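Quick start: what a row looks like.
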Amino acid sequence: MQNKVAQILEFMKILDKVCLVKRATLLSDGSSETDSSHSFKLAWLLMLVYPYLKHEYNFTRLLELALVHDIAEAEIGDCPKAVQRANPQAKKLKDANELAAMQKYKEILPTELGARIYDLWREYEDKKTPESRLVTALDKVDANLQANQHKNGDVRYWLECEDGAQYLTINTEKKQVVAVLDEPIIEKLEDAVIELSLDNLKKCGIAV
């Protein structure tokens, strides 16, 4: 039992690092969003939309996937979607590094628990289950919404990010992963966030 306690405490150090990973998007006060704040909001978004979903999902599984989906970044840091789009090699490197990180985490925890967390992450990455596809869709909606929260919609910082011009497309396009869900509440959320992005771009004098 004492060994399991030590393993759990070691894994908690990893979660501390997740709280330190900064993302490209900014919070309303201008500070950087972190992976932990993103995962927190994603879990809440799942809770808020769950009563209105058309299809059946395992709610516990949804929350587990939301918690696990970005923990590899404690080891490798965040690689913004704009960078991945502009540089396919960056995405390949990110994928390889995340796999190595998750394999490392798997070994830290007791065997069954480590395998469970690894399998949840693998499920999210593979996008083959309804739960993983729903979490992926809301992950994108949340990221686009957060990108608009800075100082009441001042989105000029998008263009200052690495490969920032990509944000103009990312935040104003409909996502295929949302369309294939056939979940009206998610589609309406996406439409509202896209409209918000377009309004803020116009307000800031940025042409799409």
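That is the whole record. Residues 6 and 14 are 13 Å apart (CA to CA). The first helix runs from residue 2 to 18.
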